[in-house]
Each structure stands twice: as C-alpha cells, then as structure tokens.
C-alpha cells in the first residue's frame, strides 16, 4: 500500500505529521523538535501579542532551519455585554479570593492583535500559517498569498471545508469530534450546536467534496491512526494531545498527569473556560458552571476572565480549577520526547504498510 | 497489506462485513442478501415477540443456507412512574388527535419476551446472537454457549468492552459516536452522559484492552471505512446506515429520502422517541420535546408511547413526527441492492489494499 501526499511537498516536510498549534502549550523546543524530526511543528500563537510571537519565532528559528507553521485564531464578532461580564465576575469571585487574584481588565482588541500577528509572520518569513475559528478576510489571504505563504484552514464539517477551499486555502484540516481543545467550528448547525462529526465520518465526506488536500485531526495518536486517516483519503494528520504529553511540551506536570490517568470517557465539550466550545477532561470548574444561570460571555472575554484563575490553580497543583484540554484517546498517550514519539509512529506506520 | 481476521472464521462468513440488526428496518430479504453475498446478515429482533421472531427466522432460512445472526435488546431495569407516563400521554395528545390514534396500553414484559426469544434462537439453530444495551445474565450466556452459539456484545467504551469479554462474549462490537440508531451504552460516565467516543479513538483503545476480536461500528460506509477500521485493529465492521438505504431494507421511501438529502451535521442524539439515546436526523418532534418539562419515561415505555405516532406519521409521509435514525456519514449512502453495495465495497477494499 502506498499513499500519495501532495501536502508534504506543499508544506516542505518529509513526514505527513503536523503538530497542532496548541495555544498555551507549545514551546519553541516542541515546535523545533517536530520539524527537526521531519514533521511540521506549529507555534500555537492564538493568545500571543505581536511581540511575544516575534520572540517565539526568533527562538524557534535558532533551533531549526526547517519549515514550521504558526497557528492563529481568526477574530470573530463578539458581544461585550457589561452586565453579563459583571455577573460572571461575581460568579468567579470565590475562585479569585481563594487564589488571591484581582479582577482582570478586559481587552477586546482581537482584530488588531491578529493583524499585527499577520505582519510578524510575513516579516519573519514563516512558510505556513494555519487558522482556527474561521477564515480570515480576503485582504489578509491575498497579503499572505502574495508572499507565497501556504495557508491551512480548519473545518469541522463539509460546509466549512468547502468554505475554506472557496476562500483560497491551500489545504484544510478536518477536525473530528474526538479532537481535544477548541473546536475549530465557525458555523452552527440546526439546534444551535457546533458540528461534532467523528473523524471516521468526517474525513471521507470532506475528501469527496473538496479538491485541496485534507489533513485529518481528532483521536489520532499513533501509526494506526495515521494509516487509517490516509486510507480515508487524508494526505496528512494533525496531532495535538499526542504532542501535548511529550517532554518538550509546555503542559504542566499536573496537566500531563491528568491525561495519563484519564480514560476515553472523561472528556466533555465545554465553553466555560474560554467562551468557545472545547474538549477537555471534566472537572469541578465545569460542573459548578452547570448552576450558572446566565450566558457565558463570548470568546475572548470569558478566556480573559478565567485565565488568571486557571494559571494560578495549575501552579498550585489544583487540576479542578484549570482547563485540561484532551482528545478522546488518552490511553494511547506516550510520555517521551517528541522525536521519539515521531520515530515510534514512523516505525509503526511502516510495519502496518508492510503487512 | 494483509489483515488477519479470526472473527470471519468464528462467524462462519467470507467477508468481515456485518449488517447491523436495525430493529424495525431489517427484512428477511436484506438479511439473506447480506449473508448470500458473503457477509453476516442480522435480524433486528429488538422489538419482536417470540412468534414474530420465529416466523422471521423461518423466512430468512428459506432464502439462505448461510449463517445469519439475530440481534436482541438486553432487558434493563426500567422505572414505571404512573404520573410520568400520564404527563407524557398529555404531551402526545395533539399528535394522537391529528393522527386519529388511541392511547396505547403499556406492556413491560421485556424480560419475558427476551427469554422467549432466547429459546426461539436455540430452537431454530441460529449460529450467532448479538446483544445491544448490555450483557445478558450469566444463565442465559451459559445456555447459549452450551449450544455452541457465538455471542457478540456491544460496547461504547473500553470499560464496556472489558465487561463483555469478562462475561464470556466471543467478540465485541465497538460502537463509535458516529453510529446511527440506538447507542449500545450500558454504563454512564461522569456528568450522567452515555459514552460518545469517536470510532477513530474507540477502536484502538478497545483493541489494546481486550483479547476477543473487535468489530468496528460507527460511520463506516465503504471500502475506505473498512480498511481504516482494520488498520485500527478491528477484525470486522458492522454497518447500519449503509444497509438501511439498500433496496432490500424495510425503511420507507420517506426515511431513505430523508437520509439521501441529509448532511453529516443533521443528526442529534435523542431519547425522545424510545427512552434510550439514539442518533437520528433532527426534526420537529425532537425540537418540540425541548419544551417538555419532565423526565422522558424509560425504555421501553417511551418507545411504546410514541410508536403508533411514528408509524402513522411515516405512513402519511410526515418525516417530522417519526424517528429517522442515521449515522454521521449520510453523504456516503448508496441506494442500490445490498449485494451491489457489498460488491462495491469489496472492489474498493481491494483497490486500496493493492495501492
């Protein structure tokens, strides 16, 4: 069995393996190690200011000469409702009190931060940019394409994949419901839900409906997942949780331990941490929010309201008050260097293909 | 690439393809056609009385000499709460009035019906019995095993798969969240949810934790899905929606049309039709039930309360008041004979393996 993969050529990599741009958990070491091992490392720049992104890129470029990507969050229309924020601040007061934290000042300059990040990416000569939460404006796409930057979108449904292709994306990540962390969805389906389509269903249906290369994501942790994804028609895979537990990841020991001790049934989809739906291990913070009787403020407002609490809790070793993003395959996690992980995957892939 | 499949030997079939026992939608023609084409047909006997099952088996045996299976629903503890049923009957009154229906008499002799079905299966020499909604009592398992009947359980999590193996099942169906129709779950996870693990995540984690053969289910519709499932470690697949739209299926034209015109994002998990969670195409009956302010009666009570409404609505061409079970891959549906479907799948599988 043999797979063609135009996408490795387009991305300038040897292996069809992309490390997901996990905002808050990627490190320059992780990104560089993945790229140096033949895959595509990705800086998770979703929460970065332009300055932070600039220095992060510089750092990665010191560690590798090979291509790596930057992942950005596409700004969306958010509603700032003062009473809504006030209500949430009141709800969060006991957490802040327990952790000795002040109420944060909300900054909704998402659009400006995004545009500045685009400029940084261009200045620093980044070859691949991936997007989450939607499709950037046509002017941004044209600006990046004029610099021969390869653009990768994210889709959680066939409709979103077609929208990515129409907008001029060079490839599209099809994110199955198994995936950990934020859902990349930017449409809602009937019944006000964002799409939650399993990878086994999503990949072939997306592949049949777009002509750009499809990158499979969601539940993929090893050689079995990679070969299965390519059998379904994907040309590469993107893996998040698999790299999150690697030695080079920025995830805390607390966080890695939580994944190591979790089962496939332990995650839920929740918007209580950031205002956008994401998959993570169920805990007390999520449970308590069941009793919250108002709308959760939109992203990025809720993200900023809870950010200090989550950071301080994690530092104090409290896994119940922080986000623990994880996909549905925690039992397949490996706790090794990202380079060993990739080696293991390559060996397993070869052994499956030679059977 | 080559796959070993002990399970085809155990089941006495040529192809690692099992037609799911879709209660209410299998016909003797469908079951026999699948078995005559080299797969394993399954009578969906979940709702059958012993008499109905007896005659259905006789009919299939006239159409094929090859092995086929019977799928049974394992009885569960249900709570008959009179006020609860009264409340639901009041809610359903407008539907019954519009369709000229009487209030049904509730029959909760599930256990007795199940035990009678077990006897029928033994008398008629059925070689394979599969179970949904749990594991039968040890006495039932021993009775069937004494007759060399092969037993196949259903699991939606690793824990449920291990329970099936421990109870003596010969193989286990791992049902991913993509699957249409009833969830086979018999445990609940934290937060009171039944497991909804995507097939890409579920299969390898189950395979790593049991030593009986694993049969993959959920989102599998074609050769790509079969090879992908076997790469993940499954030894066979079970397909429901793929056979539901076949010419031999008992699904109405209304129902098949609904699947043909649906998208991967159109299904939801709901317990409003039967009292047990199942995946189907979203419609008015499900939506309206959002405003119902009491618990839905347990299965099989709710199933009996809504059954007449669903049948009558379907007969009148009203797809909004009936269940439309479907998996998450409706775009991959084929509207051909089950034998042509299997032929297509075999050709596609060969072409993938020879690449």
Task: Please provide a brief summary of the model.
With about 350 residues, chain A is of the alpha/beta class. Chain A has 14 helices and 11 strands.
The first-level CATH class of chain A is given as: Alpha Beta
The whole-angstrom Rg of chain A is 19 Å
User: Share of helix among residues of chain A?
Assistant: 40-55%
What is the residue-mean pLDDT of chain A, rounded to a whole number?
Answer: 95
* CATH domain fold name of chain A: TIM Barrel
* CA distance, first residue to last residue of chain A: 9 Å
Q: Determine the number of helices of chain A (DSSP H or I, runs of at least 4 residues).
A: 14
State the CATH superfamily name of chain A.
Aldolase class I
Largest interface between protein chains, with number of residues from each side? A-B, 54 and 54 residues
Low-confidence stretches of chain A: none
Structure keywords:
homodimer, 355 residues, alpha/beta, TIM Barrel, eight-stranded parallel β-sheet, 11 strands
Topology of this protein?
2 copies of one chain form a homodimer.
Chain A: H1 6-11, E1 17-19, H2 28-36, E2 42-44, H3 50-63, E3 69-73, H4 82-99, H5 110-123, E4 128-132, H6 138-146, E5 150-155, H7 158-166, E6 171-175, E7 181-182, H8 199-207, E8 214-217, H9 223-231, E9 236-239, H10 241-244, H11 253-260, E10 267-270, E11 278-281, H12 284-288, H13 301-315, H14 338-353
GO molecular function, one term (chains A, B): nucleotide binding
Family (chains A, B): Belongs to the nitronate monooxygenase family. NMO class I subfamily.
Pfam families (chains A, B): NMO (PF03060)
């Amino acid at each position: 069995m043999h797979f063609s993969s135009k996408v490795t050529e387009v991305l300038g990599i040897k292996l069809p393996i992309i490390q997901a741009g996990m905002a808050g958990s990627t490190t320059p070491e992780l990104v560089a190690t993945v790229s140096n091992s033949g895959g595509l490392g990705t800086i998770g720049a979703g929460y970065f200011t332009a300055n932070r992104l600039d220095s992060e890129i510089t750092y990665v470029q010191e560690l590798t000469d090979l291509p790596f990507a930057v992942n950005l969050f596409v700004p969306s229309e958010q509603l700032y409702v003062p009473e809504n924020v006030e209500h949430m601040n009141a709800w969060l007061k006991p957490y802040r009190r327990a952790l000795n934290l002040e109420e944060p000042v909300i900054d909704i300059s998402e659009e400006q931060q995004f545009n500045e990040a685009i400029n940084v990416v261009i200045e620093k000569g980044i070859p691949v940019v991936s997007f989450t939460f939607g499709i950037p404006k046509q002017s941004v796409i044209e600006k990046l394409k004029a610099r021969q930057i390869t653009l990768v979108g994210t889709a959680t449904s066939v409709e979103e994949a077609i929208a990515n292709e129409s907008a001029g994306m060079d490839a599209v990540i099809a994110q199955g419901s198994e995936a950990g962390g934020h859902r990349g969805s930017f449409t809602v389906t009937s019944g006000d839900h964002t799409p939650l389509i399993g990878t086994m269903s999503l990949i072939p249906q997306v592949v049949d409906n777009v002509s750009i290369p499809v990158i499979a994501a969601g539940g993929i942790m090893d050689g079995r997942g990679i070969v299965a994804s390519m059998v379904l028609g994907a040309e590469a895979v993107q893996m998040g949780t698999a790299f999150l537990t690697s030695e080079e990841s920025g995830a805390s020991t607390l966080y890695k331990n939580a994944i190591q001790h979790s089962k496939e049934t332990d995650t839920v989809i929740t918007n209580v941490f950031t205002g956008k739906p994401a998959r993570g291990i169920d805990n007390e913070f999520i449970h308590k929010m069941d009793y919250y009787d108002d709308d959760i403020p939109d992203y990025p407002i809720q993200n900023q309201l809870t950010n200090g609490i989550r950071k301080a809790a994690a530092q104090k070793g409290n896994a119940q008050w922080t986000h623990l993003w994880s996909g549905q395959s925690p039992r397949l996690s490996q706790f090794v260097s990202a380079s060993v992980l990739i080696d293991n995957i390559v060996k397993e892939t070869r052994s499956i293909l030679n059977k």
